[in-house]
Amino acid sequence: MTENIAATDAYARECVATVTASDADTASVLLDTTVFYPGGGGQPSDMGWLRTDDGSATWRVASARKSGDEVWHALGLEPGQALPAVGTSVTAEVDWERRHRLMRTHSALHVLCGVIWRDYGASVTGGNMEPLSGRMDFEFETMHGELVAEIERKVNVEVEADREIRVGFLPREQAFAIPDLIRTKINLLPPGIEVVRTVEIVGLDLQADGGTHVAHTAEIGRVRVAGYESKGRINKRIRIEVLDR
Questions:
Q1: What is the C-alpha to C-alpha distance for residues 15 and 99, in angstroms, rounded to an integer?
Q2: Judging by DSSP bridges, how do beta strands 33-34 and 3-4 pair with one another?
Q3: pLDDT tens digits for 190-204?
Q4: Digit-coded pLDDT (tens) for 215-240
Q5: What is the dotted CATH code of the domain comprising 3-94?
Q6: pTM assigned to the model
Q7: Which residues are bridge partners to 137 per DSSP?
Q8: Structure letter (DSSP) for residue 68
Q9: Domain extent listing, the chain
Q10: Low-confidence ranges of the chain (pLDDT < 70)
Q11: Which CATH number among 3.40.1190.10, 3.30.450.40, 2.60.40.730, 3.30.980.10 corresponds to the domain 99-243?
C-alpha cells in the first residue's frame, strides 16, 4: 500500500519515500509514500523526479499510475541508467509548476460544472484536461454564443468570489445518500470503494472527486471559454482556458 499525500494535501511538493518494488519491463518503481497524483477522472498524472538522499542520483518520473492501493512511478531512464534498487531512500518531488496549473484547471472545471448544474440543470457526460486548458461535455440540447458568453460571465463571478475549496472523505453509504454527489452521467466509482473523497466549492458545488485542487477559487485566475461544439443531439462540449488574473 502506498500512502498518497496528494489525496489530502495538494500543496505538498515533495516527500521522503522508500522504493518497495520495481518492474524492469515498465521501468517503474513502487514507493511506500508519494506526493504524485496517479491520474484519473480526466486529470493527467503528475510528473517530477526521484532523488537519492545524498544527491548522487536523480530519476525523471514520466508518469504515475494507481494499481489497487499502490502507486507505481514510471521513470524516464537515461541511456544506461538503472532503476533505483529496492530499499533505496529517495525524495519524491513533483513538477510543481505543472501540478499547480492542473490544480487551477481542475478547480475551474468544477466551477464550470457547478454553475451549469445550478443554473441549467445539465449533467456532465465527460471531461478531460491539460495544464491550463480543459473541456467538459454536458447534456445540453442546444448551445449558442450568447449562452456560452453568459456561462463564462457566471463562472468568473464565482472565481472572483474567492470561495473556499474543501476536500472531505465520507463512508460510501453516507456519500451516496447525498443527492447529485455523483455529477457525471455514469457513476465512475468502483464498487469496492468504501470511502468516497469529495471536493466542495463552498456555496456552489459538491462532488465526488479524486483530483488535486486549489484552496480558493480566486487562485484559479480567470476562465475563458475557448470554444464550444456539438458532440451529439443532447451532448455539447465546452472548452476552456485558464488565464492569469
A1: 15
A2: parallel
A3: 666 788 899 999 999
A4: 999 999 999 999 999 998 889 999 99
A5: 2.40.30.130
A6: 0.94
A7: 126, 237
A8: T
A9: 3-94, 99-243
A10: 182-192
A11: 3.30.980.10
